[in-house]
Design goal:
Length: about 400
């Protein structure tokens, strides 16, 4: 079927909202309005020669869903366009994206430098899993540029950082860290899950590779798992693709379809959530029982100037410390009437968790202390409810406790 003029336009010229709605859309001969869901694991060929050509790479086309699928391709292309990147590779989850981005470019004897402010599973990959394969890591204070420099060894291959960090919302200077890496031939991998590609564009700041959990804001309604690695074509084709194709953390077509549809409203949702998060963070400051509030758009944030330089908004997450420690945190969580207790985030529903006993429980007390994850800390993912209702829910639970 001959493609229409609309299918021949250059989507790189589109604005962000248009890319989120139409980026990667590839209609079948049926002309469907919504993106098609190709729910299949395999593909057939007209003849053996066609199969041979596809497997050799001489002909374009799909061969097996572990290698690629039309619906998955639409998700990859939509995110690629949103980031303004050369390439994107979808994965089964956010952690599959982190694992793939790090493991595909390292081998026994190599070394990684990472900020010590990490999500619990990322910490486990760096400190427990990769060492089994002879790959070591050094964790540093992400805001100490001299520490990044000092940690470099001849065998250092990767700098890894998440900013804002999970759960402490520490923000690190991506451009400054990237400058150090570039001067030493080191690849910079940035976990941009908390900021989302709406709030923070890391490629212009010097990131080489970006990892995402599509499970969070891209889905936005707590339905499916998914992830993605954004990179150059060279990184994808030479390092990432061979590793992921043969190890198998593939994104299912159905999950890809859900993520594609979720991305249509990503900018609208994240914008509204950021606005509510700032209002909530401001309201919590000075509230009785709250020892401190961390939010990138508050003047009280330790890196407030940096936040405004490299982010367009403060994000959807608010972290705050309760003066009464774990018991005060548990008491407050128990009294909430609207906000749900859950370790997920980026949802349309507001969710709250106690990191020390959930997402960061298994890393141990010493590592939690190094990250600043205290027993009184709670992490709030702000949803799409009325901000006034959420503020009332939180302050009411705090007063009762």
């Amino acid at each position: 079927m001959k493609k229409s003029v609309k299918n021949q336009v250059n989507p790189s010229k589109w604005g962000e909202a248009t890319r989120l709605v139409r980026g990667g859309l590839e209609r079948s001969h049926h002309g469907e309005t919504a993106e098609a869901l190709y729910l299949n694991s395999g593909f057939v060929y007209d003849d053996a020669e066609t199969a041979e050509d596809r497997f050799s790479g001489e002909a374009e086309g799909y061969v097996y869903a572990r290698y690629g699928n039309p619906t998955v391709t639409m998700f990859e292309e939509r995110l690629r366009l949103l980031e303004g990147a050369e390439a994107c590779y979808a994965t089964a989850s956010g952690m599959a994206a982190v694992w793939g981005a790090l493991a595909c470019q390292t081998e026994a004897g190599d070394h990684i430098v990472a900020s010590k402010a990490l999500f619990g599973s990322c910490y486990q990959i760096l400190t427990a899993i990769l060492p089994k394969f002879g790959i070591t890591s050094t964790l540093v204070d992400g805001n100490d540029l001299d520490a990044w420099r000092a940690a470099i060894r001849p065998e250092t291959k990767v700098f890894f950082l998440e900013t804002p960090s999970n759960p402490g919302l520490q923000v690190f200077d991506i451009a400054a860290v990237a400058d150090i890496a570039k001067a030493n031939g080191i690849c910079v991998v940035v976990d941009n899950i908390f900021a989302t590609p709406i709030v923070q564009k890391t490629l212009p700041l010097g990131a080489d590779v970006i990892v995402y959990s599509g499970t969070k804001h891209m889905d936005g309604q707590g339905r499916v798992l998914g992830g993605a690695v954004v990179s150059t074509v060279e990184f994808k084709d030479e390092k990432l693709k061979p590793f992921l194709r043969h190890t198998g953390p593939s994104l299912s077509p159905f999950n890809a379809w859900v993520l594609v549809k979720g991305m249509e409203t990503l900018k609208l949702r994240v914008g509204a959530q950021c606005e509510s998060a700032l209002n909530i963070a401001s309201a919590l400051e000075g509230t009785q029982g709250v020892a401190s509030v961390t939010y990138p758009w508050l003047d009280s944030h330790p890196q407030a100037d940096l936040c405004r330089r490299q982010m367009t908004a403060g994000g959807t997450m608010v972290t705050f410390e309760l003066a009464g420690g774990k018991q005060a945190a548990f008491d407050m969580l128990r009294r909430l009437e609207i906000i749900d207790i859950s370790n997920n985030l980026g949802d349309a529903k507001s969710l709250i968790t106690h990191p020390a006993t959930t997402t960061h429980r298994n890393i141990g007390q010493e590592a939690r202390d190094a990250m600043g994850v205290t027993d009184g800390m709670v992490r709030l993912s702000v949803g799409l409810e009325d901000a006034e209702d959420l503020i009332g829910d939180l302050t009411g639970a705090l007063r009762s406790s």
